[in-house]
Every structure is written in structure tokens, then in C-alpha cells.
Amino acid sequence: MGELTQAEVYSPRTQQVWRAVLSWLAFFFQIFFQIIRALGHYPLLSFSSSSSSASSSSSFKPLPSVELVDHDSHPPSAVEISSLHYSPADHLPLQKLTLDVLFSFGLVWLDMDEHILKLFGMVLLTLLKLFILKPLEFCIVMVYGMMMFLFYSDVVVHLTDSLVVLDLDETLVCAYETSSLPAALRTQAIEGGLNWFELECVSIDKEGEGKPKINYVTVFERPGLKDFLKKLGEFADLVLFTAGLEGYARPLVDRIDVENRFSQRLYRPSTISTEYREHVKDLTCISKDLCRIVIVDNNPFSFVLQPVNGIPCIPFSAGQPHDTQLLDVILPLLKQLSEQNDVRPVLYEKFHMPDWFQKQGIPASSWTL
Length: 369
Description:
Elements: H1 6-10, H2 13-38, E1 48-49, E2 79-80, H3 92-109, H4 114-130, H5 135-159, E3 163-166, E4 173-177, H6 183-191, E5 196-206, E6 212-221, H7 225-232, E7 237-241, H8 246-256, E8 262-266, E9 293-297, E10 310-312, H9 325-337, H10 344-351, H11 353-359
Parallel strand pairs: 3-7, 3-9, 7-8, 9-10
Antiparallel strand pairs: 1-2, 4-6, 5-6
Helix pairs in contact: 2-5, 3-4, 7-9
Keywords: Membrane, Transmembrane, Transmembrane helix
Organism: Flemingia macrophylla
Protein name: FCP1 homology domain-containing protein
């Protein structure tokens, strides 16, 4: 099978065409609206002050873009459209309708942030106050505003929906059976400053009387783990996905995630077996939208189904007390990815994981893109 190009891997052609059309239309309406504003002295947008005589030449002075109104003083005299004899009071229902329509459109259809919608509404209503619009101009402003909503809503929504899937063992922590942990390694890790704790885990094995077997585990946290989770949680939704058994992983995660930053915890039963590897983590069980989901795992075969969504991190062990991967390497990369509409082009350029998997004999036909 021929090598996949970058565009074939991630960018849906329909989405590219749609964004190009929206971009062109938004640019067109912006230019058109600026032309109309520049031609304000023509009859289409002519204004007359209520204090000027009907026979005097029409001219107006725009209001400042930001105006503090003294509520104790009388409002300024109304500005009329000479051809319609318009009063600003007539625009109050229109302004309210405009804001209501935009607010409903953004919240329900585009799922946009309420504060951004309010800001956009304020800008649009400022335009309405600056220029008492005829129906034609008002429609132009409305269309232009809707185009801006459509063009930028994808970015706004996605910036709040970044999804990061984190592996557990050898990515966030390393764990050893206490009875088999070499004393020298334990001493090196503790003297090196690694945070550690001991854990009792319920094994699937049974003791002689049929009681669950208890295993004692010593866990070392990767340096910077708590700061990493805290800072990452500020711009991404976190999901823990481990191939470990729940009896072992659940109490461990309870210790490292006391703030409950993980919105989901997935264990071995959530993994799948493929023709090439077992315990594969299929990201589509978390989200069908693969544009904004990233998995960080020390085992690349964990994300063999979605090779352009994975970050293959360096495995962590107790012999690496001065490891800086979480805060110095992985966190900055995840922050960069959180600002992308589609994380896959960036990850492809950085790691070329599809090429690597093909060299391992895993064809592209096994991928979910």
C-alpha cells in the first residue's frame, strides 16, 4: 500500500471546503460592510440631526465606540434617517430581538460560550447605535455577524473541548511488587527525591481458603506529576486509560488524583484485542471526534488504531529520579495541541507514527482515522 500523505490522514475534504467557503464569504461581507460605512454620506445611509434644519446639508458625527451614559441626564437627541423619520425608541424591540436571536443561535445551534456570545452581542448592538440602520443595512450586519459565528465557532467550541487520554504505568507512575523491589533501586529513587507510597491491591488470584489475595505494591510518581495534572486540567478534559486491572489501578489512581481531575477512568476491560496486539486502547470508545483527542502512552501499540492521535512518551522507572518529561516536554506539546482545530497534522509531523507502524508490519487498513 502506498504511503499516506498528511492530508489523506487527517483533513476531511468536506470540512476544508466548507471552511474555505465560509472564510471567503466572511471576507466578502466584511469588505462590503466597510464600503457601505465609507459611503455613509449617500442617501442609502444618510443621517440628519434632529437639531439641524431640513434644508441644511446632511452630515453627522459618529458616536464614540464606547460611551458612558449619565443616567441622571437627559438622553441625547434622537438621530433620524431622513427618508424614514426614524426614532431610536423604535429600535429597542429590534435590538432586543437581535440579541435574543444571536444568543439562541449561538447557545443552541453552535454550543458557544455564553460570555463570548454576550461580547459579540454588545459589539453588534454598538454598531446599531452608531448607525441607525435601514432594513437593508441591518440585514447586511446580521448576515455578516452570522458568518463570523459560523467561521469562528469551531475554534471557540473546540478550545473548551480538548481531550487528553493518559496511560498510567510507566507514563505517570511506575510500580513494583514490594517483595521483589531491589533495595538499591528503592534507595536510589527515594534519595533522588521521588514521591512514593505503598499500596494494598486486591488480586484476581485466590488464597487457599478462597479469599482474595492481597498484593503489596510500591509506587513511585513521575517527577512533576501533581503539577502536570493540575496545569493540564486547566485547558483539557482528562481521561485515564490503563491496561491494568481495576483492583490494582483504582486505589492507585485514588492516591494520585485526590482532586478528581479525571472525568473518566477506563481499565483493562475497556481495551480490545486486534490482529496485531492485545490490550489496544480504541479512542472511539471515548469520542467519535478524533480531531481533538490525544493519548499519551509509553507503549505506541496502545494507540495502533489511531496512530496520528498518539504521543509516544519515554517510559519512566524508579531509576530516573531526575526525569523532566511531564512538565518540560509533554505539557508544552499538549498546550500547543489544545490550540489546534485538528491535532493530527501536528502529531503526524512530529512523530510520523503511521510510517513507524507500517515498518512494524501493521498496514494502514487497520487504522481508524
